[in-house]
Every structure is written in structure tokens, then in C-alpha cells.
Design a protein that fits this description.
Layout lengths: L1 H13 L14 E11 L11 H4 L28 E10 L11 E8 L2 E2 L7 E4 L3 E9 L4 E7 L6 E3 L2 E3 L16 E3 L3 E2 L5 H5 L14 E5 L25 E7 L2 E6 L30 E5 L12 E12 L2 E13 L19 E2 L2 H4 L19 H4 L5 E7 L4 E3 L13 E3 L6 E3 L11 H12 L9 E3 H7 L1 E5 L19 E5 L15 E6 L3 E6 L10 E3 L5 E4 L6 E6 L7 E8 L3 E5 L18 H12 L1 E10 L7 E4 L6 E4 L11 E2 L2
Parallel strand pairs: 15-17, 18-19, 20-23, 32-34, 35-36
Antiparallel strand pairs: 1-2, 2-6, 3-5, 3-7, 4-6, 7-10, 7-11, 8-9, 12-16, 13-14, 13-16, 14-15, 16-17, 19-33, 21-22, 24-32, 25-31, 26-29, 26-31, 27-28, 27-30, 33-34, 33-35
Length: 660
């Protein structure tokens, strides 16, 4: 038995041996060195670094040494344009040495980021194992690496085929090794909500669509992120603060409380009709909706987050994140109730007024739909932020325009210019357009013209399907009477004495206007030559007189009333009856705007009369719905986001409380 065991052991020992690893044959990787980073345009300027780094060199960007640019101590700012990264590339063999026998094309990619140049900027030729190249990229953030790889380059596709100049492609070698090398990390600042939202190239949509983004940093991952603003901005260097401003059944809204100010004219292509008094956009592009597919359990309005991540998407022209993840920094519901709003109180809602809607000094056809211009970045800067509407009026009519019963309303757009500009089909209208009756109904109802002139009408199918309806905004006029004075040049000031006078401008026929004077005056409405005398309509002092021009009337003549103690100063304010959308079904399910004043239920009839006689202040999140008319929609969070100014002799409709 011992002998058998010994023979077995010897046999096993004889079967064991060691074999040296084989050295890989051919190219195994590439050494990639970055030799320069410039803007991807004809100027080829150096990329700027963050202000904290530039401050160490006298706030002189040119004085920042090249060797520290793009390092952890001196981050590049997040570029808004194409970037050219110049490279020096060496092929490496299996021993780690240079492989001078490698000859062939290598392609580029960048992570994170996108290749944006033509095909000539996506590859280079290596000869005897060495080569140089330049790759054009965009949408860079955080720690970025350029990858060099022995494989075919990325092609662009459109309409089911390859696009681009195929003559710029290299001759494909017989075989590929798929060897890869990457550059050292190039450090850019981390993304913010504003950098995701900021328009680029005249577009309203995010440039980061379909990209996974992370905003913020957990404390265990390093120092909290700080804002890189202009040195004059009070928020420069402040810690990023991500605030949950509201939740709903499918997600939540987040605002970066310490985001940087954005000068109006810094956004290319902005349609600025009336500049903001301080020169900055009313919002900071610092809010975003997080689509969670369900209610975000464990989150409440007023909570703070450390981080927020997800895939950037556009839904109805509103930027959002989907498939999200987040980490909570502070849950305010664990604090005493008097502290639940301690952060929300620091982010007051911005009032939507005529200046933000896009009003100029003179009335314009498009004014009736607030923020209709696709380059109105005042409104875009507030997307998903909390905003406020002041003294809006609810519809008096709900009209079903769905003649064919398909639950789909045709779009309409302004067409033409000058006096011929009108609301029509957004595209060339065929003579036998089957949607023509529906479109005319929707246009007349939404804009309050034609059959619905002088009233506020909402299309019923839109309300039934989406819960949104049109409201009429606060009219232009002096702020002392609670009106909208945001575009002061639109209000015509008239000095009225004992001789009949008229405002400096006429108005389009059918326009509504408000006249307010500090002394009693007499008024007569009519053509350009109209005059007023003591037989005209009396307008009492310090009261608002509303009138809609009839027939050929285009102006008003004014004269001092015989009982006046001095000459009057009058303000004549054209009222565009501007519309915006409201969606209250989830916030106030008990408030039904589609009601009947003659309802057989006396309580419901009274509620309806109270609702239509009142005006309302409304706070809510601003949502962009590109195909809708109006395009901007305000969504209150709950009934406390609405308050009411009751009509004469009436109360507020339940459950809305009076405004303070």
C-alpha cells in the first residue's frame, strides 16, 4: 500500500510544471498625450478656466500657466462651443515599448462628450508607430478622457443612411487589433442644472439630450461643489444647494438655489423686446423636472439634495431627467413644522408679466399668447421654476371644438407680417383642409376673437384630456391699481386740459384699452380725428375705465371735466388680453372651472358665479408645452398656491382663500 501511494505521488509531481506567459503579439495599446486644447473655431483661443483659478493669477486668463490648465486644481469652465483637442499618439507593444512597425489609421472617441467635427477630425494616421491628430468635441464636463483605438470610426446616420463626406474616411485596413489607449484626465467643471438647461445655437432644447448627467457631489466623494459665477455675482463661490420645490404623482421639481445670474444678451439668438431693468434674465435656467415614473417616496417639498442624476430628455419642449437617482441632504419634515419652508422661503416665485411674455412698446399680434416667440429666453430661464400669476381671470366659456371626435386639436401659428399677420395653419393650408372648421373654432376660442370676442374661452377637449385651460392675464396699466406696469413704454401718458387731446398712438380696431386719470375727464372714442367735449363719457378720478373699440374706432379723445380742480394726467393702456395656460386638477380637484352659472344645483351655480367674477393670484411650476396654445403652462402644487380677489359683493369660490 505504501509503495502504491509513493508511485501515485511521483506521478502527480511529474505532471506539474510552470509555463511563462506569452508576450502578446502586435499593438496592445496607445500612449496618448494632450498637446493643446482650444476653441473649435477659426480663432482657436485657449479655453477659459474657472474663476477660482484665474483669481490666483490676477483674474487674467492669459496668465494661467498651460501646465495647470485642466487639472484638479484649475478646472476648465464647461465649454458652450466645440473644442479641439490636439494629441500626440504612440503605439505600444506587449512589452510596454514603442511599436515602430505599426502603420494604420486610428479613430477617436471622448467620454464624456460627443464628436462634433467632420470625419477628418475623428481619426489620424500613425506611421512607424507615431502620429498626431486633432479631435473636435463638445458637451464636455467633469473628468474627460480622449480614447484612441485601432478600430473603425463612428459614422453619422440620418433618415436611415450614412451622412457626411465619406471621402474623408480612411482606407480600412485588412485587420483591426481593437487596441485602445486613453489620454490623462482633462478636468472640466462639474455640470449644474443651468449648464444642462442653457440654450445653445439658438435652440430651446438641452444640448445634453440622451446623456447621463450627475449634478452635485456627496460629502464622502470630496468637497461640495461651488458655483463658478462672474466675480461680481453674489453667488460666486457659494456651495451648490439643490432644493426640491414640489412633487407630483410622477416625479418632482428641483431648483439650484445658488445658481449664477445669466445676462440676457449672453444667450445667443434671444428675442429681447423689452430688456430687464438689471440686464439679467428673470430666471437662472436653474430648475428641472425629474421624471420618476411614480411618486418620489421619501421626498417632500422643501427638502435639500446632495446629488441628482439621470438621463437628460426633452418632453413637450420641457427639459427633464428620467431614470433618476438622488441622495437626500436634509429632510425638512423631520424638523419642527415652522421650519418646513425655511429653504422655500429663500426662493420666491418670479411674477410672469408682459415684459416676460415678450411685450414691446407697441401692441403686436403675438402678444395674446404669453411667451409665444420660440426665442423668448426670459420664459425659458424660468422653466420648471416656481412662478406667480397675478389677478388672472378664469374662462367663462368651455367650447368643444373636436368636430371629428378624434380627441386631437389642430395647431395654429401666426403667419405673415405687419398688418397682414394673422393666426392660421402652421403649414401651407390645402384648399380642402379637413381640419379647417376645428382650427377656426380653436383659434377663435383660445384667442377670444370671432364668435368669442370679448370673452374668455377654453377648448373643452384640451381641458378634458390634459386638465389645462386658458386664463386671461393681468391687463397693462399702473401698478398702483394692481395692473401690469412692467412695460412702461406701452402705457401712453396724456396731459389733459380744457382742449381736447388724444394719445400719441392709435390702436388696432377692436382693441380693448384702459383709461386711468388723476382728475375727472370726459372721453369720446372714435377715428383718428375724434374730439371730446363735456357731453362725452365721464371717467371719475383714480378709477379704471375699460373700453373695447367698436367699428372704425382707433383712439380716444380726452378733455378736462368741468368739475375737475386741475388739469388731469391720464394713462391710456392698451390691453392685449394675453393668455397663458393653467392646470389645477391635481392641485385643487374641488374647483371646477367648467361650471354653469345657471346650474340647477343652487350651491354649484353660486360657486360658478363667484369663480367667474373673481380674479386670482396663482403660484406654480412653469412648464413648456411646445405644441400647445398657449405654449406656457403653470401647475400649482395645492390649493394654498391660489388666492382670490372676490367680485363685487361676492366671496371667493371654495376652497380658495382671499388674497392677503
Amino acid at each position: 500500500m505504501k509503495r502504491l501511494f509513493l508511485l501515485s505521488t511521483l506521478a502527480l509531481a511529474a505532471g506539474c510544471y510552470t509555463k511563462e506567459s506569452e508576450t502578446p503579439i502586435g499593438v496592445t495599446s496607445f500612449r496618448v498625450e494632450v498637446t493643446g486644447i482650444t476653441t473649435g473655431d477659426s480663432n482657436a483661443a485657449l479655453l477659459p478656466v474657472v474663476n477660482a483659478c484665474a483669481a490666483k493669477y490676477g483674474n487674467n486668463q492669459d496668465a494661467v500657466p498651460p501646465e495647470i490648465r485642466g487639472t484638479a486644481e484649475c478646472l476648465y469652465t464647461l465649454p458652450r462651443t466645440n473644442v479641439d483637442i490636439n494629441l500626440s499618439i504612440t503605439a505600444i507593444d506587449g512589452t510596454g515599448g514603442e511599436m515602430t512597425s505599426f502603420n494604420g489609421p486610428v479613430s477617436f472617441r471622448v467620454i464624456p462628450g460627443d464628436l462634433t467635427g467632420d470625419y477628418s477630425k475623428r481619426w489620424t494616421q500613425l506611421t512607424n508607430g507615431k502620429g498626431t491628430g486633432s479631435v473636435r468635441v463638445a458637451h464636455l464636463y467633469g473628468e474627460t478622457h480622449v480614447w484612441v483605438q485601432d478600430q473603425d470610426l463612428k459614422l453619422d446616420y440620418a433618415d436611415g443612411g450614412v451622412v457626411g463626406d465619406l471621402s474623408q474616411l480612411p482606407q480600412e485596413p485588412a485587420t483591426r487589433s481593437y487596441a485602445t489607449g486613453l489620454s490623462p484626465g482633462i478636468r472640466f467643471e462639474e455640470p449644474t442644472i443651468a449648464s444642462i438647461n442653457l440654450p445653445e445655437g439658438g435652440s430651446e432644447t438641452s444640448v445634453f439630450i440622451k446623456q447621463f448627467m450627475r449634478v452635485g457631489r456627496n460629502p464622502e466623494a470630496g468637497e461640495p461643489l461651488t458655483q463658478n459665477c462672474d466675480p461680481s455675482d453674489p453667488n460666486n463661490g457659494k456651495q451648490m444647494m439643490l432644493l426640491v420645490t414640489g412633487t407630483d404623482s410622477s416625479g418632482f421639481y428641483v431648483t439650484d438655489m445658488t445658481a449664477c445670474r445669466v445676462p440676457e444678451r449672453s444667450v445667443a439668438g434671444a428675442n429681447i423686446q423689452t430688456p430687464e431693468p438689471d440686464g439679467f434674465n428673470p430666471g437662472r435656467f436653474n430648475s428641472i423636472y425629474i421624471y420618476n415614473y411614480s411618486f418620489p417616496e421619501g421626498l417632500d417639498s422643501g427638502d435639500l439634495l446632495w446629488t441628482l442624476s439621470g438621463t437628460v430628455a426633452e418632453f413637450t419642449n420641457t427639459t427633464q431627467m428620467s431614470f433618476p437617482a438622488w441622495t437626500v441632504r436634509e429632510n425638512v419634515r423631520l424638523l419642527p413644522q415652522d421650519q418646513w419652508n425655511k429653504y422655500l422661503d429663500q426662493v420666491p416665485p418670479v411674477e410672469i408679466n408682459g415684459r416676460l411674455c415678450g411685450f414691446s412698446a407697441s401692441p403686436y399680434l403675438d402678444d395674446i399668447l404669453c411667451g409665444y416667440s420660440y426665442k423668448n429666453y426670459k420664459m425659458e430661464s424660468l422653466e420648471s421654476s416656481l412662478v406667480k400669476l397675478r389677478r388672472v381671470r378664469f374662462p367663462k366659456v368651455f367650447r368643444n371644438c373636436d368636430a371629428n371626435g378624434n380627441n386631437d386639436m389642430p395647431m395654429f401659428c401666426p403667419v405673415g407680417s405687419g398688418a397682414s399677420r394673422s393666426w392660421q395653419n402652421c403649414f401651407e393650408e390645402p384648399p380642402d383642409d379637413p381640419d379647417l372648421p376645428e382650427r377656426k373654432c380653436v383659434i377663435d376660442c383660445t384667442l377670444g376673437i370671432g364668435e368669442y370676442a370679448g370673452t374668455i374661452c377654453a377648448e373643452k377637449t384640451t381641458y378634458t384630456n390634459f386638465g389645462q385651460f386658458v386664463v386671461e392675464m393681468n391687463p397693462v396699466g399702473p401698478a398702483s391699481l394692481g395692473m401690469d406696469e412692467s412695460v412702461a413704454d406701452r402705457i401712453m401718458n396724456v396731459k389733459v386740459g380744457t382742449t381736447s387731446v388724444r394719445p400719441s398712438k392709435t390702436l388696432p380696431q377692436g382693441y380693448r384699452l384702459n383709461v386711468i386719470c388723476d382728475q375727472p375727464v370726459r372721453a369720446r372714442f372714435g377715428p383718428v380725428s375724434v374730439t371730446a367735449d363735456q357731453t362725452g363719457t365721464l371717467i371719475p378720478a383714480n378709477s379704471r375705465y375699460e373700453y373695447t373699440l367698436q367699428g372704425s374706432e382707433v383712439t380716444v379723445a380726452l378733455v378736462r371735466d368741468a368739475a375737475a380742480t386741475a388739469d388731469a394726467t391720464c394713462k391710456v393702456a392698451p390691453d392685449t388680453r394675453s393668455r397663458i395656460s393653467l392646470q389645477i386638477k391635481d392641485a385643487v380637484p374641488d374647483l371646477n372651472p367648467d361650471c354653469k352659472e345657471n346650474d340647477t344645483d343652487a350651491a354649484k351655480a353660486l360657486q360658478c358665479r363667484q369663480l367667474r367674477a373673481a380674479t386670482f393670484d396663482v403660484v406654480g411650476h412653469l412648464k413648456h408645452v411646445g405644441p400647445a396654445r398657449p405654449r406656457w403652462n403653470v401647475l400649482p402644487r395645492d390649493q394654498d398656491d391660489l388666492c382670490c380677489y372676490p367680485g363685487p359683493g361676492m366671496e371667493c369660490p371654495k376652497p380658495i382663500k382671499p388674497c392677503p
